[in-house]
Each structure stands twice: as C-alpha cells, then as structure tokens.
Amino acid sequence: MPELAGLADDALLLRLQRGAFDYLVEFSNSQNGLVADTSRAESPSSIAVVGFALSCYPIAVENGWMSRADAAGRVLRTLRFFSNSSQTDCPDATGYKGFYYHFLDMQSGTRVWQCEISLIDTALLIAGILVTSVYFDGAGAEAEIRSLSESLYRRVDWHWAESGTATVWQGWKPECGFFHYGWEGYNEATILYILGLASPTYPLAQHAYASWRLTYQWENLLGQDLLYSGPLFTHLFSHAWIDFREIKDEFMRKRGCDYFENTQRTVALHREYGRRNPRGFKAYGKNFWGITAGDGPGVKELRESGRDLRFFGYMSRGVPYGPDDGTIAPWAMPATVAFNAQAALAGTRHILQRYPMVCSQDRFSSGFNPTLQTKEGGWLSQGWYGLDQGLLTMMIENHRSGMIWKLTRRSPHFIAGLQRAGFTGGWLDGE
To answer: How many CB atoms lie within 10 A of CB 206?
Structure first.
C-alpha cells in the first residue's frame, strides 16, 4: 500500500484511525452490541473489545463517521444487553458479581471456552461504559445510557475480587474459584485499581493499590530510567482512557516522573532495543519495533546463520528481557503517537514502505515476523484483532484532539479513583 505511506501525517493517521474503527462496526452484532475478538470465522466476543468500541463510538460521531443517534442506539443496545444478562455462578452465565467472562458467544452472549471471569477485561469494559455516560449528556435514549452506565458500574463487586488478599486476583472460574495468582509488577491493571477504588458500592480496600505498587520494578535499561513492564501494550491500555500527564502518585513523586513520561521512556527503550537488535532478528531497527502481546507464527523451528530459532504463537512478548522471537506488532508503533509522534510516524512509514502487506484495508495485522521467511517476505498474522483496532482508534484520537482524556477528566468516578490512589498535581488540582 505505497499510497498510504505517501500521505501527509494528519491524513495518514486519519486513514488508519478510520480503518481501525470500521473493524468495530463490521465485526459487531448490532442486536446486542458484542464485538468479535478477531475477524476470524466463529470468533467469540471479547468484553475488552466491547469496552474499546463503546469508547470509540463518540470518536466516530465527532469525526462524522456515524450519526449521534446511531451511536447512542448502539451504546444503548449494548448496555441493555449487559444489564439484562445472566449474573450467576452457573458455568454458562454471562457474568458474576458484576464482572463478566472474558469471551462471550457473539449471539447468545454466554460464556465460551470455559474462560474466566476476567478482572482486567471487565475493567476495560466498564471504562468504555463510563465514557459513554459522560459523552451522551442529552435526554431520552441518552438519559437511559447514563442510568444504565451508573447501575452497571455500581453492580461490580470489586471487594469480592480481593478475597482476603492485599491486592486482587486476576480471574475466577465456577469450576475452581479464584486463580492462585494476582497482579505482580507494573502492567495494564492501573485502570482496574482506579475504577475499583472509586466504586460507591463495593470498593477495593484503600491499601490495595499501594500493596500492588510494592511489586513495581524501577530499573535502568538501555540508558533509560523507568518503571519496567516488558510488553508495550501494558504501557498503553490505561493511558487510552486516563490522561496521566503531570499527575503523580506516591511512587512517581519519589522518582520525579509520571506515568505518561514513563511510557515515553518505554518507547525510547523499544526503539533502542530495535537498534541494538541483541538477538539478531531480521529487520529490527530504530524504526522497526513494537514488541508486545499479539499473534505469532506458532511453535515452529528454524536454523538460520548457525542458530536454532524457535517461534511462538499468541503470547505476551517483551523488551528487553523477552520473550522475543522476532515478532513485532505493526499496530504498536502508530499506537504510541500520543507519546512520541515523530518516532511513531517514522516507524509507521518505514514498515508501510518496506512491508506494505502488514496493513490491509487500512488495518494493521496483529503480528509480523520477517525472520521466518515465506514467499510473501515474512510470516504475517491472518485477519485482525479487535483490541489492536480499538486501542489504535483511541490513541490516535488522543493525539489528534485529546477527546477521550477530556471526557474521563469530567467523570466523577475516574477522578475519585485517581484521588483515592493518591494521585495529585496537574489537571487533578486544576493546574
């Protein structure tokens, strides 16, 4: 797609944003609002993708891609579905204790694959629900959106998810109860704790967030002092909703940094890792990076240049400690545009010019590995993933207008959660 790479910056971003957003409409069930996890046949819905979609409908309205009435109708059908869905401990329900199963059947909305009640994916869904409650501020259907949003948020029993621990568990299944592990180290769970602390009905204990912070790792890596988390997406998900510029909690106050700057440093780390390319993978460079969670070639082995290489399927890859098998997520570079536009656009243009097959119908594939040679020039993930498309839509808009950040800065629940987590400064203090 050489013509895409040749567009001016703003036109390129708008085209990629529109292509990403269109996934959320094309692969949705218009009757219940569920959105498919992937574009592959028979894919179930991911509740996190629904949360991204709910946040993106206002973006579509403001950009003229969808009427306000159409967007409100889609949101309302989604909220009504979740409000009326089965909330029991039965294995074929939609959710339990206000939380929801990670993957749901696109038609019936019931649990599939014996998946877990997911704490983080429910938090991402709720974040999208709360965005709609701020944006749709009119009467009629929009008033019902606000009412359902509030009731769905109040129904989540965040306290139950602590189950006597200092922090929260990652998931629960009716067959075995809570998983035997929680959240360790900095990652995408920030938004989970923020929303859990703010609950007016079943809040997390005040110490939960502080207890989680005790597991953080502040390190010096490839010339960057930063709060470490290997996969790039963990530095992006919470930022899709929350404007962390110049607001700091106790951890960041002590280090003279904030989480926005930390992600900027992480982008620099990923670029430097690509430049150094310590494992010698093909194509890595300062404009070819973005190691994160995503699709991969699967368990294949290759001997190249005297080395035995092994490739992985869908997994969470990270920098600099790995795992790294030469697979990058092409969407990850433009998704960082709000943090370093020059680096994001340089990387995006490079991959579009050198490997145009990574972007079809203006949508980036989940994973690409040029080290594993094929006749097309490298292994490429088939189809698209909803999480990638939703995140890209939101982060481009935050770069272009700051729209989602402006909306959540008006949400009393987001504000309360940040304050209860100890954040101060910047816009929180009216600066």
So the answer is: 11
CATH 1.50.10.140 for the 1-19+216-400 domain, yes or no: yes
User: What spatial distance separates the first Cα and last Cα of the chain, rounded to whole Å?
Assistant: 44
pLDDT digits (tens, 9 = 90+) for 276-331: 999 999 999 999 999 999 999 987 777 666 677 789 999 999 999 999 999 999 99
Which structure tokens are listed for 86?
Answer: 């089965």
CA 215 to chain centroid = 21
Q: How far apart are CA 227 and CA 211, in angstroms?
A: 16
- CA-atom Rg of the chain in angstroms: 21
- Cβ atoms 45, 36 nearer than 8 A: yes
Which runs of E-coded beta strand occur in 133-255? 171-173, 177-178, 218-221, 224-227
Neighbours of 6 (CB within 10 A): 12
CATH architecture of structural domain 31-211+401-413: Alpha/alpha barrel (1.50)
- The DSSP letter of residue 161 is G
Torsion of CA 192, 195, 198, 201, to 10 degrees: -90
Element (H, E) at 101: none
**DSSP code of 428?**
G
Structure tokens at 230: 């290997």
Burial of 284 per CB tally in 10 Å (0-12, 13-18, 19+):
buried
| pTM more than 0.90 | yes
Task: Please give the Cα distance from 131 to 161 (Å, whole number).
Answer: 23
| Residue ranges, CATH 1.50.10.140, the chain | 1-19+216-400, 31-211+401-413
